[in-house]
Amino acid sequence: MKIKFAAYALALFTILSCNSNAQTKKLSLEPKKGKAIAVFAEGCFWCSEHVFEAVVGVDEAISGYAGGTTKNPSYEQVGSNNTGHAEAVAVYYDPNIISFKELVNVFFASQDPTTPNQQGPDRGSSYRSIAFYKNAAEKKIIEDKIKELTANKVFANPIVTEVKQVTDFYEAEDYHQDYVKHNPNQPYVKGVSLPRYNKFKKTYKGKLKPNH
Length: 212
Hints:
Layout: H1 3-18, E1 25-26, E2 36-42, H2 45-52, E3 58-66, H3 75-79, E4 86-93, H4 100-109, E5 118-119, E6 122-123, E7 129-133, H5 136-151, E8 162-165, E9 169-171, H6 179-182, H7 187-203
């Protein structure tokens, strides 16, 4: 059993018992006019969602699953590490305010990209680090950032982040959305999500929304 599951198994069981018909759905990655969408996986999507939604220029971050082959996977299926999917976020943003390059900076500033199949206390391939791209220009931005971080020895160990083209993104069950906001006193949130976010706030050089 994954450590993250152990921290909140009872709460999750209660949620699922009340919502046995919870479903995931494939999300369109075609943005509205004047907007853009980026997808990242960096461990627990509760943490990632809270981080990206704090950044100026980001309209919304949606928790979900990406990087695998199983269609409409459930949280339990992804957590089994047999679907190929990782917990991920689809970041809806205004490219006139924030660039994809800056979102990549956020991505690397809010995680440890050197731990294979692990982020903090969470272990398994569903918690691996993946920077997704939609085109060649985005791929180059990610690869250039990895080269920069490596050359500057920002991390003590080699970066293991996957650079992968995004194909499908499945929106996670409703109870995962805005989880930190709705469950600030949940043990995992207090012990992992919020400390990770606070660490990001201290080191990130970009613009953050006030009172987030």
